[in-house]
Amino acid sequence: MTAAVVARPALDRPVRAPLGRLLVSELRWILRRPRTIIAIVLLSLVPVLIGVGTVIAGNANAGPGGNGPGSLFTILIGNGFVLPVLSLTLLLAMLLPLLGAMSAADALAGESNHGTLRGLLIAPVSRARLLGVKAFGVGTVVFIATAAVALVGLVTGVILVGTDGLITLTGNTLSFGDALARIGLSVVWVTFQVWAVAAIALAVSAFTEHPLVVMAATLAGALVFAILTVIPQLDWMQPYLLTTGWTSLTDVLRDPMPWDGLIDSTLKAACYLLIGLSVAYARLSTKDG
Amino acid sequence: MTTTSLVEPGVGAAVAAPALAARTRGLRKTYGSTVAVDQVDLDVPDGAVLGMLGPNGSGKTTTIRMLLGLVQPTAGEVELLGHPMPGGAQITLPHVGALVEGPGFHPFLSGRENLRRIASAEPLMATSAIASSVDEALSRVGLSDAADRRYRGYSLGMKQRLGLASVLLLPRRLVVLDEPTNGLDPAGTREIRRVIAELHAAGTTVLVSSHLLAEIEATCTHVAVLHKGSVVAQGELAELLEAGAPALIVSTPDVELSLDSLRDNGIAARSTEDGLFVELIGTSAPKVVKVLVESGAEVHEVRRRRTGLEELFAQLTEGETQ
Asked: B133 lies in which domain range?
């Protein structure tokens, strides 16, 4: 890049804007969008709500420990480190994918709708780069939201219950450092899962200029997956459904930690991501600007 | 009088042409069974201000979008700044500023932030120059005072100006403006004209589309008239203005007398408000003047009719619809 704008630069080779500048510009745009900020703030209030609600509801409902989110509620009382993981588990079911879908809807359909996608294509930003920048932006928003939920959950949990280490579902206690590492792992894992959903949403987003269509399609997809999961005759399908692996997030609260479920659903998410981005690129590369 | 300046599509190409900033050959675009653009052979000479004139739906925007590589043509070829499109987009488009189908900006961002975003995507923009280029572009279109207000609150004219500012972020080789005066008041229109004149003076080729004839007449050196997806005429504005059936406008109080004597001599004429209108078919101007003088009629003035572009435009488009 030259230091200053030259009057008539040579017209003989392809020139591209620095990738870093495009990424920063994309984040600037996303994080100045009021609805992104509002969504992240609301999502991070969820752990506060759960934490305060559970502690106030008190020990009355405390029952024997079992499995799944229900049992997490039980051990939450007296165990602040569980709150971030519990919050992420609950939000992963619907609200985080919704955030991913919203972000993906704005990324292509929304830009198309405002006529701003054309501006980027004329600049020009190549279509492959454009998709890369968009996928990066959506992933970053999901990561910020997930990290915010975990952080607020951690702070809330520590304030409400204290820092006496993490009592796992299997009964033993982890150190503060171990607990933090596991929460960090949850954040990364959840981000990747939601990013996969967002990649599918990006594919839909490339086909339309109505962000609402993207939201509706993603919600419908989530509902269909949920229905398929509960029909016994269709249980052969379950290994292929992204959502069925999501319960394995509670595995981070066991000791020793079983990796199978987490790795399995990470690979599954990678497939969804690849499919989503490929379809999105196939459409974007031939789309009229 | 030139023989004919209504260059038929295709004929213009035979003339040893100067360097072209943009060129299309046999361009065709269909959407399903709808033909949006057909057989468009457009030449945009380097350094010209070419006005693309046509009624709504005549294929102006589709042609522009194909020029910029936004749309893949169904058939035909496009060359922009000497490189084929859309393949050469990464080479040519950094040198091209374009405002297509109205300004596109984000309502929740300020005018300045919107421009920053576009500037960041410009390949030829140095990162250190973004802030100053944005400021300069904003002041060139008179938006400095409103720069930090949200785009949402901009008037139509301000939106159009911001679109123009995005084109002016960098010095360009070619600037494409699609209906730039839409929604502008007369002052805004004059400003667009001023900006186009400045670009022209700086050696930038400008392609501007409009359905308003006065607009083209006021700003352009060249014109291409589109109708129903085809170029029906193109060439230098001055030549096209003089084209059409030659005629004389005669200013005289003795209408009856002069009309009779002309008709006696087999010259077609009709009366107008303050004189005669004489078509120069099978006759010439000197002969008409001679007949008028010999008839003894008082003649105040005889002048050649300049075919206004408006008249030309009307002729061309009406001829097609019949």
From this structure: 11-242
- CA separation for the pair A201, A93 (Å, rounded): 16
Q: Same structural domain for residues B102 and B202?
A: yes
Half-sphere exposure for B265 (CA within 13 Å, toward CB): 21
Residues B151, B64 share a domain: yes
**Number of domains within chain B:** 2
Q: DSSP class of residue A250?
A: G
**Has this prediction a pTM greater than 0.90?**
no
Interchain pair A29, B68: CB under 8 A: no
For residues B60 and B52, the answer to whether their CB atoms sit within 8 Å is yes
Is residue A38 less than 8 Å (CB to CB) from chain B? no
Distances (CA, A) of A255 to A146, A153, A170: 23, 21, 6
Encode pLDDT of B243-276 as tens digits. 666 788 888 888 888 888 888 888 888 888 878 8
Report the gap between the CA of B166 and the closest CA in chain A (Å): 9
CB within 8 Å: B117 and A3: no
Residues B162 and B26 grouped into a single domain? yes
Residue corresponding to tokens 């008239």: B225
Position B316 in a domain: no
User: What ipTM does this complex have?
Assistant: 0.84
pLDDT tens per residue across span A29-43 = 999 999 999 999 999
- Which of A18, A115, A288 has its CB closest to that of B127? A18
Strand boundaries in A130-195, DSSP class E:
166-167, 173-174
